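[SOLVED] Predicted holo structure with zinc ion

Edit: marking solved, answer below. Original request kept for reference. I posted the sequence and ligand SMILES and asked for the 3D complex as structure tokens.
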Amino acid sequence: MSFMEPETCYTYWITWEDSEGCHLAPYTSLRSDYREVEEVRNIVESDHPAWLSRLSAPGYLDSTEWEGPYDSEKEALEALAETYSLCLDCWEDYEACDCVEVDNA
Ligand SMILES: [Zn+2]
């Protein structure tokens, strides 16, 4: 999963539900997103911007769903790392990364 990189965005956002569940997106990208979906319910538009985060693969059209909204970019990144069990420093799988040094070497 190491090709996935964190992406954050400070923006107005919107949430909605469809047959697949709840979704979140930056307000600007929403319009195209939800026009493709037939049954949309419970649309909530933000009245203030917040931080969103997701993982995306540069060079690919692959990304996770947006997470959020969060009050700070730090919080958005921490939540993203926790959700996908990734290291906050290198964004490798937490168990596979070498960032954590042995305490009492
Ligand atoms: Zn690491």
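OP edit: The helical segments are 27-35, 73-83. Thanks to everyone who chimed in.
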